[in-house]
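haha ok so turns out i had the wrong file open the whole time. this is the CORRECT one, sorry everyone. sequence first:
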Amino acid sequence: YTCSMHPQVMKDKPGNCPICGMKLIQVTKSSPVEAEGVQLNEQQIQLGNILTDTIRNGMIGEQMVLTATLNVDQSKINAVSARVTGRIERLYFKNLGDYVNKGDKLYDIYSEELNNAKQEYVLALEKQKTLDNSIVDFTVVIQSAKNKLLLWGLSEAQIKQIAVKKTTTPITTFYSPVAGYITTSDIREGEYAMEGGTIVRIADLSTLWAEAQVYTSQLSQIDDNAIASIQFPDLPGTKANGKIEFMNPEINPQTRITLLRVNVANSGNLLKPGMPAYVTIKGKQVNTLTLPSDAVLRIRNEASVWVQTGNRSFKSKMVEIGMEERDRVEIKSGLQSGDIVVISGAYLLNSEFIFKQGTNPMAGHDMSKM
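then structure:
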């Protein structure tokens, strides 16, 4: 005797269910077909929405999701350095994160060396005008003085302005050679900059790096040419695709982890360095037997499917599953191509078997004999 609501209850005499209190019903002896599986009528198949499909080979690749962090693309960071020694009189951008356009004023500097070079240029121009008929070729002298100014960072427009005005100012303004966000500011107003010393660093954030950690056991599953899909938990609905640009060849011996890097386009500058991200990468595709994931019943570390063995008769079979991709799963053993498998209603069949037999159809199976 068993309970129609709780088939795990089994009694050898009539009575009530100890769980819900319903009257126990008598279980009749199963037919030979039902001893191994389940026999349904047409009405049960329709009500249970029992659908079958023939298992066949298909392409499948394991999909892995890696936790990543967005970082600045190091190849797009520009260090703006002083071309000449001098005192910084003014910084036009003082805050980290300020956006600088290409050509914006960046800093003013007072440099004795630079002032002397500007005066030499003006003097060469004046001598050319007054001593043009001398044996000295002032064109060469002027070009030499101009080249020195160009090497020290003055633009053609600034040099032309000196030539027109024939005067110089002690303060020289330098302009940004690139556009981007200021990430570091290494000097303050009033401090002296040495030749080659960094004034600011400017980063172009039009692309970012999504850097994810990968365990060595996962490396064989990654296709270096795969396109990764990136999602951003801080920006729901925002997605991006990127190519795997770099895989660190060095493995950390303590953690057994290496670094994987994906370039991410940052249109509209919505993405910010430091944001978390999820990088989804498809593994290498293989041709193997596959089924819809809903067709596979799983209990602990075991898996089974229901196979149609005849007209409206079904039998449970243990299977070994492998890779999973979206709504499909690889069947490594337990089935062969051409088997007709229940893809909808498998849980109903399982419950029907337990109700009639009093045991789980997966009980007693040994995967090592498959």
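The first strand starts at residue 37 and ends at 39.
again sry for the mixup
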